[in-house]
């Protein structure tokens, strides 16, 4: 997974408490709801509260077990299916990016088309991804030097090779043969953040601080769409604040996002974000990558987050949020799409070809000798 892991165990809290929900133009969304009911503000759900979601089968022997929690909400935001603890706070990690993009656009970032999709991306750092991030910065009168995300080598093979050789040209200049902030998977989000700051005359050096006006607005947007208060605020792998709230709240937020294009009363920025993600799925992840494949083949929003998080959202507002407790996301797409099919949001016959592309085989000697398969609690929901 492209995302770096958060190193701080906790982040500096915003000055004062988060701004009240209800000011983010959500369009008919009820806000100001309670914080997640779990009292475990110091952590997410425990092993005792999780269920087995998937197992790794090697030659008929269960080698590993992935436990976690998952929830599907219907178009009305009510729970339709659940396994495990869906009320304990979780960090959405990069599955939060569509809502950070909404906040940046509401704050004035004039994003359009594939720029919107890249603002939501955990991209692989292809030449196209890096060119687009650089172009966004240039339109704001900025450059890569203004980004505060970490540097990285591209995950994309051709771009990585070109960069290591000092042969990668981006934005009309040849990059040095070293890690680049443009290649970091969150560079599009950071470019959008900076563009919003430029439009408002906000400080650029501190745009990742929790008490910066833009980051406080992100919290407003999250609480607006999730319908609940955040439980904790930390520092994500890219350096931006990341709030913790319930898995149910995350699914509810994604459902509202996914349904926005067909709802005339919905938040206009949410409609723009959902449309752009589906129109430019390559920008959100990368050609042949899991999130891109799901969006291209099924027409539903799909967004990963580090530490085993995945969200899915269908156009009717049915949405799923998955958290694998051990942080390994290799089974998340299998579990999430299965639950969406169980809820009737995806046709079962559509799953096979997509799962073939997104679920990696278990290899022995370079040949398939097993597979990742669903565990009993998930299979029981299919009956």
UniProtKB/TrEMBL annotation:
Superkingdom of the organism of origin: Bacteria
Low complexity composition-biased segments: 1-36
InterPro entries for the chain: Asparaginase_II
Region (Disordered): 1-41
A Pfam family that the UniProt record links to this protein: Asparaginase_II
Position of the signal peptide: none
PANTHER family: L-ASPARAGINASE, PUTATIVE (AFU_ORTHOLOGUE AFUA_3G11890)-RELATED (PTHR42110:SF1)
Name the UniProt record assigns to this protein: Asparaginase
